[in-house]
Amino acid sequence: MKCKRALESETTYFYHAVFASRFHQLPKLAGSQTLELQNDPAAAAANKGEEPGAEPGLRTPRRRSRVKSLHEMPGPNTLYNLYEFFWKDGFGRIHEIQQKHTQEYGKIFKSHFGPQFVVSIADRDMVAQVLRAEGRAPQRANMESWQEYRDLRGRATGLISAEGEQWLKMRSVLRQKILKPKDVAIYSDGVNEVITDLIKRIHTLRTQEDDGETVTNVNNLFFKYSMEGAIPKWLRPLIPKPWREFCRSWDGLFKFSQIHVDNRLKAIQSQLDQGEVVNGGLLTYLLVSKELTLEEIYANMTEMLLAGVDTTSFTLSWATYLLAKHPEVQQRVYEEIASKLGKEKIPVARDVRKLPLIRAVLKETLRLYPVLPGNGRVTQKDLIVGGYLIPKGTQLALCHYTTSYCEENFSMANEFRPERWLRKDNLDRVDNFGSIPFGYGIRSCIGRRVAELEIHLALIQLLQNFEIKISPKTVPVRAKTHGLLTPGSSINVRFSDRK
Ligand code: HEM
After folding, report:
1. What ranges does the record give for the region Disordered, renumbered to this chain (predicted)?
2. Number of domains in the chain
């Protein structure tokens, strides 16, 4: 777990890439003035929050309908934003700024960072509308700097950084072995093996360094520079260091992945040479099936490591914290485990189905602490959202943290109440776009089932073995945006043996 920290800063690149780093230029509208439309289906749809082209209502609107332009949209100005982010450490409070701006400007607002422009959406229904209108290859954000690094070093793109047809191809290969719970039940061991190897490698590297600090320092630097990686290209001549560090960080990560992928490849080759059958997890499948090139495999292993390590461990930390603070909830969860599974039985994937409360704990943890407090989408066609015409090519920020804490979406939203997720039928239905911690749709988190399995199994075993309690050292822990939504201070809890 400790060594996972060494990757923390890279994960921040992922977050900033999807949400905060590269916003598009303000798209050009046909005219900057308000659009006045009469009896126009798009305008009628706008009044109801639908997208253009949606089936118009039965009744033709009688009064003049009006679709507003982006110029009319409220939002903080550039100077205020720069002040808030660079002067008042806004990067550490992105989730709170989301809420504050929603209160000040409403559930849809625009922001400028110099020439960069983003429309933020903090409304459950509008988020649903945007995600349901997605095409076959949604774009999360402009990944220019990721692509530039890869071009510079002759590297392939992985799933996070790929776009269009290239993304579609990779997604269709990778999804085969990772997207469904039953795939994960079989292959998660393989994925974990690779991650464990990589983490061990970081540990070894760190202890081998004379000063014993190098990885730690790099980690700190990674974080710092991932923040600064948000500096756009036009500022690079003035501030060159972040880009250099950005490249250096990626060099290290790719090297890690390459070492371990190559080792696995050698092992497979020697098994084949000896006429043995090769079994294994996702990596083995990718290497044997040859559906992706070796470079693409390096890129995907690197990006999965980025996206998968800290997201999972932070969520586990928050869940532990919440359970310690709510002993009555913990007791109910434990009783369910003890009665439906047993006090000592080591759980496997299929056991999780019998334990709706443990799944509800994870859902509620991710509602209160969504590791990615916001997500991004670049509109692929003109949309009318919340009464505004949003042209194709606009960077949207979907404010999941704000919608998670909205009373309209979740009553007693500030409270940890896992039971709210218990339903008669399917627990996994995405019918509340107020909390979609793994995203939604075709571009949603591909590692969701891996993460869920890891967290469910870990929590079950923790609760079978320990009563998790607060200790005199437990202090209230606030969330901090550190790329991801992280605990702002250390979580200290007691693990008392269960009698
Ligand atoms: C608690 C754990 C996790 C959370 C909350 C989480 C959340 C997310 C979110 C919100 C996205 C963006 C989805 C969208 O744009 O609609 C995403 C994408 C992604 N995640 Fe996760 N994730 C977690 C764990 C993992 C793990 C364990 C892996 C790898 C094994 C992983 C790999 C990825 C990848 C590769 C993408 C990019 C998918 C694409 O662009 O097609 N994630 N994740």
Report:
1. 41-71
2. 1
